[in-house]
Amino acid sequence: MRERTTGRHGLTPVERAALGKAARSAVPRSRHAEFARDPNAPTPLELLAGQDANRVPELLPIRHERMALSPLSYFRGAALPMASDLAGSPRTGFTVQTCGDAHLSNFGLFASPERRLVFDINDFDETLPGPWEWDVKRLAASLEVAGRDNGFPRKRRREIVTGAAAEYRSAMREFSRWTVLRVWYARADVETVQATFADQLGAARRKKLSQTTVKARARDHLGALEKFTERANGGPRIASDPPLIVRVEELGIRDRAAQVIEELHGVLAAYRETLEPERRLLLDRYRVVDFARKVVGVGSVGTRCWMLLLLGKDDRDPLFLQAKEAGPSVLEAYLEPSEFGNSGRRVVVGQRLMQAASDIFLGWVRVTGLDGAIRDFYLRQLRDWKGSAEIETLDPVGMLAYGRLCAWTLARAHARTGDAIAIGSYLGSGTSFDTAIGEFARAYADQNERDHAALADVVKTGAR
């Protein structure tokens, strides 16, 4: 009797591959080149204004200024407008756990629990089950936009974008041949990255990669202690750097500061319950000594984010945690709502599903904020060997290699949670999909430039 190996839907690999090929008839791969904004949809400025309504008002000018800096900085903050644009785009119906904001700056280096430096997706604020195509298109468009910001000629940009699409396609087809556990354990540690791309990078670029890994390892808790603290009352405390870092006592609530600090201790206690028992024990070896509000990112500016300083055996044994507000994913307006009632938990679960190795202090909590509103947060280490590519310094060869690495990483994340056999079969061995994605990225980058100009004009005139 023939051995029947089934996927989670009870289908054999042959049947799942057939589903992928059949999807080509319903959604030809060439159709992924299509981009047309729905004229009845809210404008990007309207969508961004809607997000502003739930953010800290005094921080909004920082968000607008950061997004107005360049088309790439605008793109980084415009996950919601792009989700709106992708809502009507062709999709095969194969669902994965999406990142929701898979642009090239949301990949980077960090430490695994085994203390190895790994490369992976590092931002999951918008994660949600959804179409694999949306993540691929956001990554591809970001490469095109970044190539334009760096002044690359059109031909080189096309090579970069189609190269990333081809890497995603070939990686997904490769993962479709692997066992489930082999896919789950796959990761891109820095030694593998260096070996894989050694033949594509000259001596200068290999040296730059080595320097990046050295810098990442230096971005640890002791480095954060030097960067973010000052001495006061015989010990370290977080140093204010308004408006980017503001201590609780300086938030205009001096008469309630003691109460707020007590509430923040309660937040930490509630977060502790979402950790595994052995990690609770580890957390219990630290004591909280200070809190401060922190501004992070581009699109996230205005959401509530706290920096927490904890100390272990002495003043040179720090642990920095970051508590970041989590709202509904931008994708939830266009897909099914999250199965989790807590948006912080949505982020944590999505991160654990997509990342090969996740922060040991990753957890979530629901609290009543300073304004009396109930809000969800997720917590993680602020710095743990963090590193990222300096996009503005990449030349075409470097960006091609980096784009391919991001695409491989994205395919691996999708293969962990989706049907790699069906998706790989749909993509096929030819270049139809790659070409279509290249055309989509160019069209979307044109639209992104117009959207950026509209925001920049509003910021310049002071209308926002």
Automatic annotation (TrEMBL):
Query: Which one Pfam family would you cite for this protein?
Result: DUF2252
> Where is the region Disordered?
1-46
Recorded hits in InterPro entries, A to Z, give: DUF2252 (IPR018721)
Q: Which domain of life is it from?
A: Bacteria
State what protein this is by name.
DUF2252 domain-containing protein
Q: Which organism is it from?
A: Amycolatopsis acidiphila
The lineage is: Bacteria, Bacillati, Actinomycetota, Actinomycetes, Pseudonocardiales
